[in-house]
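Encode chain A's predicted structure.
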Amino acid sequence: MKVSVKRGTVLQENVDAILVGIHENGTGFSPLVQEINRLLSRSISKVLERKGFTGKPEQIEVIGTGGAIPAAYVFLCGLGKAEKAGLEQVRQAMGRASLRAKEMGLKTLATSTATFGFRLEGVPIKDVGYAMAEGAILGLYRFSKYKVKEDTNSRNIEELRVVEEERNGVREAEEGVIQGRIVAESVNFARDLINHPANDMTPAILAETAKRMAAANKIKCTVLSRPQIGRLGMGAFLGVAKGSQEPPKFIILEYNGGKRGGKPIVVVGKSITFDSGGISLKPSEGMGKMKYDMSGGAITLGVLRAASMLRLPLNLVGLLPATENMPSGTASRPGDVLRSMSGRTIEIISTDAEGRLALADALFYATRYKPRWIIDIATLTGACVVALGNHATGMLGNDEELKERVVKAGEKAWERVWEMPLWDDYFEQIKSPIADMKNSGGREGGVMTAAILLSKFVEGYPWVHLDIAGVAWNDKERAYSPVGASAIGVRLIAQLLMDACS
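Encoded structure for chain A:
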């Protein structure tokens, strides 16, 4: 879908539908809504009087115009209570409205930041345009590659037109729309990777995809094979890969948008393309969803794509330790001891605690860059799902300023994080009698014991760990995120990087 910005009057646009925002119980119409209401003989007021549509978040009501204006329809998009107005409500409304328009077979839509940002005092037009583009593009996403009989092109929206009356508004809205489109399309890029079945998203295929994305965006991409990984001494990562016939890949992406020699920000993404649990086999129920265990890696690729297309003035590195975790005669066993790249040894208690083994070597490799920050993102622990459910990402880290920045970015992107403790006490649970540490400390405090293990491989560098196990997959549709991969983390980290450049 094309998203464009132009100067003019929305009411004069010859489009299939105009989208307008309505706050709950019609508490104050924007000037555009007032004019539409007048031209359509109080149709909007009558809809609100019927009480079927009240303007609650995610509600959509479609009104036919009967030729009173060039557009055939007006979409009333619920924004919720005026006192709770925010950019998230704009995203939700645009996501729902765009999908409804697609289902109706409409091709062209028009709107204005003024009608959606009417109650957002102090919020720049740029930010409203950004949220509108995000919501529309994310809401339209569907993964239908394997639906042979589905005609995915017959009902696609061709254009969303953002119309601004003031020249300055055009410039600001266009800047926001361009950025929002890039970030949203990068989210959808990551969603596609995660939604692919594991037979079509092996470590080798993931590596080839990374190469193509990098080549298209002036990013350097290096892929290390098993012998090269072995020469680096990544025994923990290779210990996970031992059970699979699919060869592991260590994918390195480098975007140099900042000063030559400037300290980079390193993003490390867990990239287990299928997680059976290994010898510590998972229950069969739900195992098919374990293709999503490479969400962290897909998100990392999405972040690199967005940063490059946004031309952010910073240096950025992405690291993806990609492998399957499979049971076989060559697989690592509970009780085995692995030697990591750092030299530290790790006793395997559960082969299903494999992500931290792969990340341990990748995080230690990240310190080679002497980075400004290290951020890792991973579907790491079921304990995080139990603790935080499906609405928050677990955050742990060793640097207060970086954690504060992540929280702020999460609030703005509405990919919120919740800090959990990283106390030395938790290391007591993963002490091993025969190695430097164990890869599992049991059920109690599972989020923290996993993170405390990772912290030992980034000592001396600002680091934040994001556990997305509870938010990486949707079992039910949300406003702008369908069932399947959410790719939560792309928008969060992209916002963090943009804030770092401001």
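The radius of gyration is 24 Å.
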